Amino acid sequence: MSPLRQQMIDAMVLRGLARRTQQAYLSVVAQLAAHYHCSPDRLDAAQVKAWLLHRITERHLAYTTVNQAVCALKFFFDIVLGRTAEAITIPYAHTPQRQPEILSREELARLFEAAANLRTRTLLMTAYAAGLRVSEVCALRVADIDSAPDRMCIRVVAGKGGKDRYTLLSPSLLEALRVYWRICKPRDWLFPRTTDAARPFDVSSAQRAYYRARDRAGITKTGGIHTLRHAFATHLLEAGVDLATLAKLLGHGHLSTTQRYLHLARPGSIPHDSPLDLLRRL
């Protein structure tokens, strides 16, 4: 490992960047260096801009992907190299605001029914019922489920931004988790890998499991497993949960992030139901 790479890793660890973020940032800087066949600390802002333009015009990468690269390069030039003035001149690309397609309760019931096995079905139900990111649901441990009658919550450890939080544990989800535990008997990780119980379920495998269940269920709406988190937020808003409470459940640092779901929610429904419990009304 080069001293420069180690320096960047150390800077990211000191600032508490998530492991996936660290990997993404390192990949961006490595790609930039490979493009110019030289160490990235020898490049200037003009070369960085030319590389970003190349990724947009010739490789046709999405603006969200390019913006992630911008974040990585700002960190590298500003924090690691201390070249603040050059880092500031790297522009962000305008990202079109597209609203996700929200699954209906009937579609969710079909999705869970179409899951390949009990573990996959329970994982997908947990992601929806607790509003979890795919990395969060895969990283759950058995000890994170607090089923005491006066608690009924799930602890999310080191979510996005390294933040811990608590989210809903509905009676319906607890019932499903107990059935799953009796049959599969997970010990440490709630959803361990089939081939290695000492490791948590792989994020990419969870994503593929969602796509397979979606296709089997005949659901044509786009989006990956993160769609379940969108559905959780939208259905709770429709059920009358206030925006501040929802923001805490989702782990959002700013209400403005949660407000996007106001554009997706429809009026009505019964206040304060868990979204998973609503499936029983079908």
UniProtKB/TrEMBL annotation:
Domain Tyr recombinase: 98-278
Entry keywords, A to Z: DNA integration, DNA recombination, DNA-binding
Pfam family for this entry, one: Phage_integrase
Record InterPro entries: CB, DNA_brk_join_enz, Integrase-like_cat_sf, Integrase_catalytic, Integrase_recombinase_N, Integrase_SAM-like_N, Tyrosine_recombinase_XerCD
UniProt key word DNA-binding: yes
GO biological process terms, semicolon-separated: DNA integration; DNA recombination
Domain Core-binding (CB): 1-81
An annotated Gene Ontology molecular function: DNA binding
Family, similarity comment: Belongs to the 'phage' integrase family.
Protein name, UniProt field: Integrase
